[in-house]
């Protein structure tokens, strides 16, 4: 039964992150997930100091607020003329450092392990169960991540056309009356929620990998957004299951194995994708060279 809960937890993370990752890839904002996953640490620390609990709703709220603050500061620096990658680097390192200071200064008051936040330990999710009216409802992480996935699906399902148009052509979206800034911050809020919900169970590193790699692989396999979303979820689930059994086989990190499998799948798509793979592009160039040039 433990195998099932671990794979299910990884699959839930992969599904929610894969859906959001598609929009981040299309908007050329892949690294924003890395920035948010580190810069929400002050929000988590402050929530712990206020509530004294790791299981409170205040943790999600504090982290989500700092996720939105991160996005706002990055946008502010970009509007001031700074390059996008520099803006991301400055904001997330500064906020992450503040979080580390808060934790180190109040270590006796905060029951938080930085290694747990960054790397997580998905193998232990089966032991942290949700007890409701005396009944064991299963791992708390599954309920948390399942709820997060439902929120992501509801938001994307309700505003799919708006998210799609904002991703491909923000200028046109603004011209037809869509509040581009609102949907930008809604997307970033969902990324923050998914990142924070996955912290203790799988760690930030796995979340960042699931935000970027399956969506990038799906991008190479199709030119349709709806198909890309489906492919990204399927690839994420395959990475979770394949990574777990690979880790069990060679006795190593489960999170590391999941991202390694994701990297292998991306490499295969990069080489053999019928649309954008190296083999397909090489064959296309060969065909073009064989076409005789018209004589004047």
Computed CA radius of gyration, to the nearest angstrom: 21 Å
Dominant shape: globular
Low-confidence stretches: none
Mean pLDDT: 81
Spatial separation of the terminal alpha carbons: 73 Å
Which class do the helix and strand fractions yield? mainly alpha
- Side-by-side strand order of the widest sheet: 1-2
Report the CATH architecture. Answer: Orthogonal Bundle
Summarize the amount of helix as a percent range: over 70%
* Number of distinct beta strands: 2
The helix tally amounts to 14
The CATH homologous superfamily is called ABC transporter involved in vitamin B12 uptake, BtuC
Q: Under the CATH scheme, which class?
A: Mainly Alpha
Strand content: under 5%
Would you give the CATH topology?
A: ABC transporter involved in vitamin B12 uptake, BtuC
Helix/strand order: HHHHHHEEHHHHHHHH
Main β sheet profile: 2 strands, antiparallel
How many domain units? 1
Describe this structure in words.
77% of the residues lie in helices and 3% in strands. By secondary structure, it is mainly alpha-helical. The protein has one domain: Orthogonal Bundle (ABC transporter involved in vitamin B12 uptake, BtuC). The longest helix has 26 residues. It is globular, with a radius of gyration of 21 Å.
């Amino acid at each position: 039964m433990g195998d099932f809960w671990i794979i299910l937890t990884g699959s839930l993370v992969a599904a929610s992150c894969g859906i959001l990752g598609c929009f981040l890839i299309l908007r050329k904002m892949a690294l924003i997930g890395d920035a948010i996953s580190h810069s929400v640490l002050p929000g988590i620390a402050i929530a712990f100091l206020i509530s004294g609990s790791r299981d409170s709703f205040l943790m999600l709220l504090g982290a989500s607020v700092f996720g939105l603050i991160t996005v706002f500061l990055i946008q502010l620096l970009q509007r001031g003329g700074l390059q996008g990658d520099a803006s991301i680097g400055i904001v997330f390192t500064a906020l992450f450092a503040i979080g580390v200071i808060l934790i180190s200064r109040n270590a006796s008051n905060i029951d938080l392990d930085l290694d747990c936040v960054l790397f997580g330990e998905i193998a232990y999710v089966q032991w942290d169960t949700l007890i409701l009216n005396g009944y064991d409802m299963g791992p708390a992480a599954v309920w948390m991540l399942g709820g997060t996935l439902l929120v992501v699906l509801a938001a994307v399902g309700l505003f799919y056309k708006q998210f799609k148009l904002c991703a491909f052509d923000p200028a046109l979206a603004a011209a037809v009356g869509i509040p581009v800034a609102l949907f930008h911050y809604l997307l970033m809020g969902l990324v923050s929620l998914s990142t924070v919900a996955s912290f203790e169970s799988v760690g930030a590193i796995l979340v960042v990998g699931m935000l970027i790699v399956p969506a990038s692989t799906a991008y190479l396999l199709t030119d349709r957004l709806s198909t890309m979303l489906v492919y990204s979820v399927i690839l994420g689930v395959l990475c979770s299951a394949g990574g777990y059994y690979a880790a069990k086989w060679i006795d190593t990190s489960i999170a590391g194995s999941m991202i390694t499998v994701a990297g292998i799948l991306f490499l295969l798509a990069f080489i053999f994708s019928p649309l954008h793979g190296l083999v397909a592009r090489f064959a296309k160039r060969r065909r073009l060279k064989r076409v005789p040039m018209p004589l004047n």
